[in-house]
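Supplementary notes for students who missed Thursday's class. We covered one full example, reproduced here. Read the sequence, then the structure, then the short commentary at the end.
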Amino acid sequence: MNKTNKNYERKVLYKTDAFEIVSIQWEKNSISELHSHGWSHCHVLIEEGLFENQLDLGLKKEIRLLEPGQVITTPIGAKHEVICKSEKGKTLHVYSPPVSELKIKERFSSVDCESLYPELSLSEPIAIHKLEKLLQFLKTQTVSTNSPYFMNQLFAGILPQTLMAEEFIAHTRTTLATYEASSIHTKMEVEVIQNLSQQIGWPTHSSNGISVPGGSAANFMAVH
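Structure (token representation):
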């Protein structure tokens, strides 16, 4: 295979300060040579075609064949190479933060929290440019839960679908407390509950449920 074949076309579909979504159309044997996204997480959804992804984690390397519907994640600091194995292919890439505007080059480090106190003073409002600078700094002090070497027993990483949903929630700031405030969201909740009931094998017409924000709330609801 010709390793220099780069017959693919990138198109930015959506972009914010937090992430960007890029669609890529591939030709057969087209390849994105081994590369890193720096301080950005890279999530790739296979929409059409068959792909091979080579992930270089430093201590080990992984090679996977991917079909439509599968998602791959390249954690911070890792490198990967994508090869289209079918006649045509299409992938959806979510970068967080946007790779086109990366300004942070430092690796994860830990500092004394006392150095943050002047920046986090509540005595006066924080200007938007100062807040943006502070958030960029906090990223360098945050553990990468997307890393394959992060092995917490309760949580790890984030799905690109979840990232997009979180931004939508932050923009709309609605609530499921009443049907009047969020009718479409209530209908979505009912649909999810009915689908889960069907997966379990329960009759949908006689099954019910409720969405909760986390495990503790779920346990409390179950006890109740």
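Commentary. The chain has a mean pLDDT of 81. The beta strands are 8-15, 20-27, 31-36, 41-48, 51-56, 61-66, 71-74, 79-84, 88-96. If anything here is unclear, bring it to office hours.
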